[in-house]
Specification:
The structure is a homodimer of 542-residue chains. The first copy, chain A, has 542 residues and is an alpha/beta fold. Helices cover 27% and strands 24% of the residues of chain A. In chain A, helix 7 packs across helix 8 (237-244).
């Protein structure tokens, strides 16, 4: 028997309709790519999004078509998302930090028909345009006055383009499971894989992130997503802020410490979110200029594990609570947020910091488990670590145009590729990537834990740990280190330093000093390359 | 093109699974019907709900069957809801305050197969049992020691009944649009009408109410729904609290001022919700005993309009912010919550109180409009009032077993039966019921506004205003008053008192003094009866 409630599909344009109706004058402030601060509001964003939808329709864009964006966080970029999804097309955010070949690959794989791009990226796109045959038109997110000379196909300035139509457009009608957004993962191995979000998943995910123990957004908030719109939906903030009636501040292309501090302060931002690198830069700048953060009521940090020192600096020095978060493109992206349950609240800041350094617990809408390689669930004791697998309302079930490929286990869980512990209070701590964990005699050793400990040695600048084949134990850890300038770390000395800190069987079987450890474009250790380099290495214990 | 995200249906048991997994030890405290305070938690509630589901299955209850409850707010009542919905059956909450004939009508209309009832209601149900042929078994929510002698068909004590099974039960699998709950409206005219909630509507509605500008529930909250589970889902708190990981305090049968104050204080409740009557009683008790409300961080008041004096007492005397709310059974029930947007924030408490006395604005998931009788939308100017119509994710589209009856307009809006203004900031104020508003020469006069003003006159104890037929103006207002003891209100004097406070054309054409004004069971003025009494009344102006 069906319930007798209204059929009110969870569509993205309902979020903007809501914001424009209930919070029409709430500010949407952008640092424009042209330079100046530009002020808008939800009523205006909606009105312009309607024009985007109408104008795209005139360009022949239809339900299900992919429209790419290569742009910073600005109101114009936001408008294109709502315009694209409002007619049932799919926004495809292209990460400009990808390698050029990857950009060409994903635009071609997605068969994007139109590309919105910022002025910043015109030179890049001009260089690649010959290899982007699917793009029928380039819309440069600027006005006529700033429009550069370009030979890009059918190039037009955004403002001139939308000026050709009015806002008399009715959002299209379609089921909530309709595709809305596309974001490719930038794996270190293999081709990028596309995650195809639906209207439903984006709306539910936003509802989840608005909640008090997630980002806790309200009409009193001024929300600045430093995390880019091209980085997994900017952690949902492009949807969550208008849903909550919160003001938005979009920092445009300037993400350095001084620029972020300037806009945080002048716009009186209360909530912001970004990866740790951004916050390192901000804290360094604050050290230099001696400023404070009086308006900020909390900061979300994710994308990679946040060092406890950064959490402590925000909380103790600047009185800004940190929400450590974890997620991935396949999770829309939020998988967990570290808010403090009463049972882990503590007067002892050291103990509290221990909790805050975990990736937090699952919000409603995310289910998870840790398993061994055979898929058997492991205990939530805070010690045992296993493959972290997730299921939920905004988790991928397939990759775009690889639909034949099963990516869920028999219970519908997606393997995150992370290795983690879950403690009895539900807090999850990432201990490794599953391809990097060292499997020694059926037990797992966390390469990340060993690396974090090793860099505590006074002579070690950077450390990487990889598994090396071993005749008896399958794999044993090899510690690879870079020396601090003028220092010469000694194997015996470093291992002795580690001894009291780790289980006996975690002790690396050997240590090697190298000049440099290879990194990915985003600064992570490139373990595939390292493993390749040491593929013939023979441990002294073997 | 469909998105490629997981199919994770919004099912009620996922809320309890979530609470039992992420917040297993969070307290669920009940004042039992037997007397003592009983402590449980979400892990235990889930475990017992699984046994309820398994035991119901053994009693032959199947997907779509209706199971009634006639019970106070306790953990046992909560368990029955999750047990019933977890196998795909439908909880039907019976309001014990209905007239006996109405109780018989709704149980028969719903064809409830089993009834869970509190000890309190055994005598009532014994009296009605002969007229309840659909009920195959009565389960009394108590243990063997407290089980009374009764001839109710197949009567059994709840604890003995669930003790026959273990918790080895798998929640049933069905679409999220499946019916989950049934609640009848208690209209003053006609038979009660059943609103049939779905799993989806209840879960989405709970997500909406958890948000910061709604009830704003978190793991640090101790939530006490004084509003009964049989009163429109206790405003969603039975779902919203476990979803947020908040503790629950269930006050059982004792809803008087001293009992509520006792449990509020000893259990350190941070959030509570009820109708104004409950809060009158609490405030009166506080006046008497001189206590404070140090743990309470906000109180939600709805069900009927909350007098500004009650709001002011909570806020100024006890430092507890009030969330004025409005809704109805057909809305699951929350339609609006009066949280303060920055644009109406004020240092002037009088101005702020003016906002807080409105019913608030629509949360995400509720759309509304005001229209004239012809369905034309009216301006949101804070002055024009019209029929309030709503649309949304948890709004009824039909009544149960009256599916042939269209209750939505052509745009899918449901007419609430309320007349309201919407101001430019989005705040809604109920000015009347649409059947009570006085239609004079094409303009509407609010009977409630006139009544509220008239009771300000020193000689008037109570006032009611009804429309009387008029040859020229269609209707004109008649003011009916009850005198204060020993007073004799004079027509000329009362109308003179009103004159500076109202528009000229709002002035009642006559005033009548009566001994008593008729009321409904819940204390509202029974205008149908009053109109009937004055059906032959001729205005002096006619």
């Amino acid at each position: 028997m069906r319930g007798l409630m209204q059929d009110w599909p969870l569509l993205i344009h309902k979020v903007m309709d809501y914001a424009a109706t209930e919070h029409p004058g709430r500010a949407v402030v952008s640092r424009s790519v042209e330079g100046p601060i530009v002020r808008s509001n939800y009523a205006e964003v909606r009105s312009r999004a309607l024009r985007v939808a109408k104008r795209l329709t005139q360009d022949g864009i239809r339900l299900g078509d992919r429209v790419a964006t290569l742009a910073w966080n600005t109101a114009r970029h936001l408008e294109t998302w709502y315009g694209i999804t409002g007619l049932g097309a799919v926004y495809h955010t292209v990460n400009p930090r990808l390698f050029e070949d990857q950009i060409v690959y994903i635009i071609s794989h997605a068969e994007d028909r139109l590309l919105f791009l910022d002025l910043t990226f015109v030179p890049l796109v001009e260089k690649l345009a010959d290899r982007l045959p699917s793009i029928e038109r380039y819309v440069v997110l600027t006005d006529g006055a700033h429009m550069p000379e370009t030979k890009l196909r059918n190039a037009v300035a955004y403002e001139a383009w939308i000026d050709e139509v009015d806002e008399d457009f009715r959002w299209a009608d379609f089921p909530e499971t309709t595709a809305a957004g596309l974001c490719y993962t930038s794996g270190t191995t293999g081709e990028p894989k596309g995650v195809l979000y639906s209207h439903r998943s984006n709306v539910l995910h936003a509802m989840m992130t608005v909640m008090p123990d997630a980002f806790g957004l309200s009409t009193r908030d001024v929300v600045m997503p430093v995390v880019p719109l091209f980085h997994a939906n900017s952690w949902s903030l492009a949807f969550a802020a208008p849903m909550a009636g919160a003001a938005l501040v979009l920092p445009g292309p300037k993400l350095d410490g001084p620029s972020i501090y300037d806009i945080l302060t002048t716009e009186r931002v209360t909530f912001t979110a970004a990866v740790p690198t951004i916050w390192f830069a901000l804290l360094q700048h604050l050290e230099k200029v001696g400023g404070g953060l009086p308006d900020l009521t909390r900061v979300a940090i994710g994308g990679s594990a946040c060092p406890p020192a950064v959490i402590e600096a925000f909380e103790r020095k600047y009185n800004v609570p940190v929400l450590h978060a974890w997620g991935m493109t396949e999770m829309s992206p939020v998988g967990s947020i570290c808010s403090i349950k009463p049972e882990v609240q503590s007067e002892d800041y050291g103990a509290l910091l221990g909790v805050k350094a975990t990736q937090g617990y699952a919000p409603f809408g995310v289910e998870w488990k840790i398993t061994d390689d055979a898929g058997r669930e492991l205990p939530r004791d805070g010690k045992t670590f296993g493959r972290l697998k997730v299921r939920g309302t905004a988790v991928a079930r397939r990759y775009f145009r690889r639909e034949e490929e099963e990516i869920l286990d028999q219970d519908g869980f997606f393997d995150t590729g992370d290795v983690a512990t879950l403690d009895p209070h539900g807090y999850m701590r990432i201990t490794d990537r599953s391809k990097d964990v060292i499997k020694s005699g059926g037990e797992w050793i966390s390469s990340i834990d060993l690396e974090n400990l090793a860099v505590g040695h006074p002579h070690v600048a950077e450390a990487a740990v990889i598994g090396i084949a071993h005749p008896k134990w399958d794999e044993r850890p090899l510690l690879v280190v870079v020396a601090k300038p003028g220092m010469s770390p000694e194997k015996a000395d470093v291992l002795e330093y580690l001894r009291p800190k780790i289980a006996k069987w975690w002790m690396p079987d050997d240590m090697v000093v190298v000049d440099e450890i290879p990194h990915t474009a985003t600064g992570k250790i490139l373990k595939t390359e390292l493993r390749h380099r040491f593929r013939d290495y023979r441990l002294p214990t073997a």
